[in-house]
Amino acid sequence: MNAPLDVSFFQRAAKPITSYRKFWAHRFGPAPFLPMSRAEMDKLGWDSCDIVLVTGDAYVDHPSFGMAVIGRALEAQGFRVGIIAQPDWQSAEPFKALGKPNLFWGVTAGNMDSMINRYTADRKVRSDDAYTPGDVAGKRPDRAAIVYSQRCREAFKDVPIVLGGIEGSLRRIAHYDYWSDKVRHSIVLDAKCDILLYGNAERAIVEIAHRLAAREPVENITDVRGTAFMRRSAPEDWFEIDSTQVDMPGRVDEIVNPYMTISEQAKAQGETCMKEEGTQPVSFLANPALKAKLKVPPRDRSVIRLPAYDAVKSDPVLYAHANRVLHLETNPGNARALVQAHGVRDVWLNPPPIPLTTAEMDYVFGLPYARAPHPAYGEAKIPAWEMIRFSVNIMRGCFGGCTFCSITEHEGRIIQSRSEDSIIREVEEIRDKVKGFTGVVSDLGGPTANMYRIGCKSPEIEAACRKPSCVYPGICQNLNTDHAPLVKLYRRARALKGVKKILIGSGLRYDLAVESPEYVKELVQHHVGGYLKIAPEHTEGGPLSKMMKPGIGTYDRFKQMFEKYSKEAGKEQYLIPYFIAAHPGTSDEDMMNLALWLKRNGFRADQVQTFYPSPMATATAMYHSGRNPLRKIGRASEPVDVVKGDRRRRLHKAFLRYHDPNNWPVLRDALKAMGRADLIGNGKHHLIPTFQPVMDGSYASPRRKNSTPGQPQKGRLLTQHTGLPPRKAR
Predict the structure, then answer these.
(1) DSSP-derived secondary structure letter, 351
(2) Are the C-beta atoms of residues 350 and 223 closer than 8 Å to each other?
(3) What radius of gyration, in Å, describes the C-alpha atoms of the chain?
(4) Which of 64, 293, 359, 672 is the most buried (most CB within 10 A)?
């Protein structure tokens, strides 16, 4: 029988990050900016740094930038924190700029994965970097977390290295690497860090800092949630479970009444609790060294052994299985530790971090940030800062579970919201202190625009749930979809003196929004600056089922509400839908149907988004394995149509930009091969025309009977005005 779910997680509060006794250096007080040079340290009266943070981004002292949040959180604990931002990685000398850290190095590649930051989805080198002064590319190395860790070790080899950030989070186990087209080791092994922190790491980094300050050896710190490290073997009092015995059969997205017992669920299916859908009952492999014989191992001393690196690197099916099990063990209320062999040693992953409370979120966002780039950058523009300088992050996390997205893998699926008062204080601070504020707040949002204070109705159910999404295939009956707190926040924020407009720039989860017409009306009539971005991602059921996104009918329902409330307000406003090309599970016919939908609705994308296989995402496991890890993985499990190769990926992009004459030749060939030549012609019901522009601005078309051979036919490009503003996909 399945192990009972332990809900004590929600009954037992984690140690608050404000409850630690401050380190002795707190007497120095907060710094205007965390120092980036010895001269700044001298002005602060410091002879050394307790912690030095190394980051691949320019240092912007703002809570939207990870290194600033971690730095200020550690400073608030009394530690002296310095920052080395975008160092020259060719030697260890730049890493010695602030001297030897007393406690540890904190290493991060930055707010983005360094490979995604540098390369496009077509593996071409980008010409810019939004996190660098002047938008200059090339200021960070490939696989920056690994390179920086190596240089830190060279600079001061006896100083512990604590690795964090999204690059570390997405590479915490053996992972498929799109750029080398192979499965790589856990980054813990490649970076040779002492400990990896995955997810939002304030709670973990504060505990680790105080334990290292108390002279506890870093190799003994193995019990902190949200951490990964290398070890030779499991402790003797732990139960080891083979991952193939806990991967339950059937669809992950089946909706099961959480109030039913296991036996009641089995009875409802006409079975017993010892047999579900034809599988053998789960049995646990207890550690033979443990004398006590327990039928059900305690979850807090159970570790699931994933297939070893040597197995998953050469077997895509085992890789997909390991990825599926990892995603099943992501709820901090019931997740167990994971272990994966890399040669003779194991990479050990403790369960995910416990989310911050509202009070802790307020504390973190209320720290004394300068809310500006470091003065060392002068007047240089940092695009990422320019984009968010007048925006406010109101929450963290996402329970959408989109398979192509990395938010859940990093921030978790439990929403962590700030209090209304905390958010209002930040808006007032922007109004009063941020240079260039004109009265327009560019965003009140986060990973999504409208998950603020939304979550499960019951902590017990939330702690027990193993579903990867609360909104797919439909909105869970236990999800609170009340948008009233968000409506109240919007109204209070826009009523502030000196605030002219509050815009919503974060992506909207429209399947949630339609559950609250009051919210949609409030949003549309007061917080849309002419257009609103949303992400249906596709129109066809095949790819949408692999993305775990709602059907296009939900988009249509939201569009009707959007247009209704815009008309009532007397405003001309437009929706900007985003779509993905070449996602796993997408056929050529799916893209053709999407193109036809775009043309019928008058959409012409200036730029398009092609599926980008980020490490550890579920869709990336589909891309690599050709299997669907949303179901039980086996040798005969459901295959997935994977769009690989430049030719087919270009074709799918071309369908999204059906209106671009440069794409017409390839689309004509594809439509003919698909038996859909009927879509080629010059009528309104055709997708692309028969003629082709030539260099002199005229158009070439198939020869007519009354035409002169070699003489191009005059025609008109399909540039009919759609009444919509130019579109720019993300």
Answers:
(1) P
(2) yes
(3) 27
(4) 64
Q: Which two tokens stand for residue 273?
A: 């609790």
pLDDT in tens, 599-619: 999 998 877 899 999 999 999
How many other C-beta atoms lie within 10 A of the C-beta of residue 612? 22
Question: DSSP 3-state assignment of 472?
Answer: coil
Within 64-201, where are the H helices? 66-76, 114-118, 144-155, 166-169, 187-191
Give the strand pairing for 175-177 and 182-184. antiparallel
Determine the Cα–Cα distance for residues 349 and 483; give it in Å rounded to an integer.
36
d(CA 620, CA 602): 32
Whether a cis peptide bond, with omega within 30° of 0, leads into 298 is no
Q: What are the extents of the domains in the chain?
A: 8-237+310-349
Residue 203, CB-side half-sphere exposure with 13 Å CA sphere: 21
* Lowest mean per-residue pLDDT among 144-148, 261-265, 404-408, 548-552: 261-265
N-to-C CA span, the chain? 47
Residues 6+ away with beta carbon under 8 Å from 319: 174, 176, 183, 307, 312, 313, 621, 624, 625
204 closest CA partner among 67, 100, 350: 350
- Tens-place pLDDT, residues 654-713: 999 999 999 999 999 999 999 999 999 999 899 999 988 875 555 555 444 343 333 333
Distances (CA, A) of 500 to 327, 424, 486: 43, 14, 19
Find how far residue 158's CA is from the centre of its chain. 34
Q: Which two tokens stand for residue 4?
A: 């009972």
Q: If DSSP codes are grouped into helix, strand and coil, which group holds residue 61?
A: strand
Distances (CA, A) of 536 to 509, 543, 551: 9, 11, 8
Pairing of strands 227-231, 501-502: unpaired
For 337-352, letters b (16+ CB in 10 Å) and e give: bbbbbbeeebbbbbbb
Q: Count CB atoms within 10 A of the CB of residue 507.
A: 20
Of 699, 623, 680, 688, give the one whose Cα is nearest residue 660.
688
C-alpha to C-alpha distance for 643 and 611, rounded to whole angstroms: 9
What percent of the chain is predicted at pLDDT more than 90? 79
Neighbours of 83 (CB within 10 A): 25
* Single-letter amino acid, residue 455: G
Tokens of 722: 């759609």
Q: Is the pTM of this model over 0.85?
A: yes
Q: How far is CA 317 from CA 268, 322, 612, 623, 633, in A?
A: 32, 9, 21, 12, 7
* Distance in angstroms (rounded) separating the CA atoms of residues 357 and 415: 10
SS3 annotation, 379-435: CCCCHHHHHHCCEEECEECCCCCCCCCCHHHHHCCCCEECCHHHHHHHHHHHHHHCC
**Rounded CA gap, 467 and 416, in Å?**
18
The two tokens of residue 583 are: 């996602």
Q: What six digits make up the tokens of 726?
A: 């130019």
Q: What is the 3-state secondary structure (H, E, C) of 238-278?
A: CEEEEHHHCCCCCCCCCCCCCCCCHHHHHHHCCCCCCCCCC
Please tell me which residue, 531 or 70, carries the higher pLDDT value. 70
Distance from C-alpha of 155 to C-alpha of 95, rounded to nearest angstrom? 6
Instruction: Single out the residue of 524, 495, 498, 506 nearest to residue 442, CA to CA.
Output: 506
Is residue 2 scored above 50 in pLDDT?
no
Q: Provide the 10 A C-beta neighbour count for residue 48.
A: 14
**Which stretches within 119-175 are classed as H helix?**
144-155, 166-169
Contact between 93 and 123 under an 8 Å Cβ cutoff? The reply is: no
User: Quick one: fold of 8-237+310-349?
Assistant: Rossmann fold (3.40.50)
3-state secondary structure of 339: strand
Q: By three-state DSSP, how is residue 466 classified?
A: coil
